[in-house]
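writing this on my phone so excuse typos. first protein, seq and then structure
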Amino acid sequence: MAYLPSLPRDAKLPDVFRAFPSSAAPLLELHEALMRGPSPFSIGERELIAAYVSALNACGYCTGVHGATATAFGLEEGPLESMIDGLETAPVAANCAPCCAASRS
């Protein structure tokens, strides 16, 4: 996951927070606003979009966390794999597909 030279290549988010403690609180506040604040997307849809972007970034940790959270918030298991295989034919809500497509560019 880590693209920061001061961290090991296999660093996870908790490692980033330990290395840069002053950044943790503002980042978590932003995350809370984006993922839980008012939105035209449900929480599950936002988590699915985040899982998709994390998969594109090849971050297994984030993909797993966001995917599990999407399921916990009511989305079916399985769409993420279909999205990665081909977004155009994946069983994704119509409002999510354009956001996911934009993240590929």
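second protein below, same order as before
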Amino acid sequence: MNTPPANAAADTAKPFISIVLATYNAEDCLPVFLESLAHQRFNDYELLIADGNSSDATTDIIKAHESDHLHWFVSETDSGIYSAWNKATAHTRGEWILYLGADDTFGASTALSGIADDLREVSNANIALAYTSVTLLNALGQEERVLGAPFPEIEWQLNHGMPIDLPHSGMFHRGSVMRSTTGFNESLKIASDYEMILRLIRLGGYQIKYLGDRRFLKKGTDGISVRRADVAVWETMKVRQGLGLRGVTPVWIAVWIRAKLRRVFRIALH
């Protein structure tokens, strides 16, 4: 069911940021996300929610969410998070789009306003992606590590065919580009955001900009790519092959083997 808010028709203003949220049986974490968003001092945004036909109280929570910022909402069966994001993209109006999952939460009340100030400085229209760091939380809700490296490191990872230290929840996509390009590849379960980056900056000629270590958002451990790192590796290789880009290098293989050995030794010591 496609359910725009009652005031959607009258609201023709284009917001600066479109926040696209994918949900599925998220009754436990969705209220936390919505509360963190409500506490933001930044108001020039719209919220779009694509739900995968949840069987719990998720849709009830969304319908009860009273906010002028809720621009679009749908609840119907989909093929996963990328399908949900693609559905919502066509309804976005923002200059920049932020794609999130329900287990993401904003940090300080100034998190969005600080990022918006940075984005307003991005005057080059050829920059299609701008990103910052986010904090990864463990199962206990404690800060585990920071995701989102400076671009020289990201570029090095891309050149060697590695999965990149660039979480989708810290990445802002230029709205005009996303609304005019082919959406996320729904045949991929984990690496479609990686493929989007390659399509835009390696094949499309667009640029990417690092906004600095802002840690504006906290990411839960329920993220698919966090939980299934090995699948992400193989999908990364599949993506590069499909786009006609060079595969993994000996450097990547050495790094991967070293990481595996470290994990084995760590398990053995415990």
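The chain has one domain: 17-154+163-221. thats all i got for now
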